[in-house]
Amino acid sequence: MRVKEGDDLSFNVSASGHPFYLKTKEGTGTADQIDGVGNNGAEEGTVTWSVPIGSAGTYYYQCSLHGDMVGQIIVEP
Fold it and tell me: Domains of the chain by range and CATH?
């Protein structure tokens, strides 16, 4: 997915057994979490991120338990 700096993102999560994280690097586990994400690691509920100005780059949404459950978030200026 592609977003812009300053966008507000919301992910509605309903995935028991699949903790949902927004991360700076892909991979299992809970390392490399993006600062300022609300409810990061949720299996139920809403994960939110207000994308900061100056944060252009590639980020990831990732199940912390399953390496193949991952996608990219490309932040554009």
Answer: 2-76 (2.60.40.420)
